[in-house]
Amino acid sequence: MCTIGQYQAAMANDRLEIVFVLGRPGSGKETVCKKIEEEFGYVHFSAGELLRQERTRADSPYKECIDEHFRKGLFIPPHITCSVMETAVSRSKSSKFLFDAFPICMHNLEAWNKGDLSKKATLRFVLFLDCPQEVCERRILQRGAAGSGRDDDVATKLGNRFKIYREQSLPVVEYFERQKLLRKVDTNKSPEEVYQEVRRVFQTGDKE
In the chain, pLDDT over 90 holds for what percent of residues? Predict the structure, then answer.
């Protein structure tokens, strides 16, 4: 983990600043990211949303692959996800980014570590939104009923989504915890309480 001094030196050299935001489906990543974006000046990129946008582009070389993987409830190949994320960053004028739901598996993390973007960026810390599965399930179903437009916000796909999270996403969380980069926030609270804790993390996040 970089020290505060190393972090400040990196910023002085115009490196990009990245915060990964991880958590179970329905743990509140999008809601929290929007508030961070407003207060702290980060640009929020949701890996899932960027892939859904890419999926709608008729000229995208990744369209068919993304369609197939979404239909089957599988993770998109890491080189595609990384390419889409890198393109989004390159088009932005910002130097501070929130990567929501990325890296979502160890293959994503390996692709990130090998990519050009990771060499230009300083990973400040990893924000982990911790919420019980039953609460997340309820939120997802409410979101789907309210017209989220996501084809996986339905009861029939919940079991597979959480199974994939346990088997493929949780190892990424555990990896960053071992690296002492993980900053955990309990999101099974009111939105106001959750964000106050998130604010504290962003104000002092370089310290464990």
Answer: 84
